[in-house]
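Q: I have 89 residues here and want to know how they pack in 3D. Can you give me a structure?
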Amino acid sequence: MARETVERPRVSIAARLPRGLTLVVCLVLVSYIFVIFLRPLVEAFLYSVNDTDVIAGRSRFVGTQNFARIASDGSFWSALRVASLFTLF
């Protein structure tokens, strides 16, 4: 006896999930992106504009002084040139 197969219409995964669950999944993904990518970026920027003593736990705002010191340092430019050449070639 042959069985008849009934074709069901294909429904996307998003259509099968409840609307609230979709929102929860989106919030989890956004929070994951924030924790993994954005937070370290913000912390790196804050470290760059502060003179931080990690051992003592003190921090002093210095603004762009760190960047000015690097721009005037010859060894920084030499290291940047060598790293660029190494990366490109």
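Q: Anything worth noting?
A: Residues 13-88 form one domain. The chain has one domain: 13-88.
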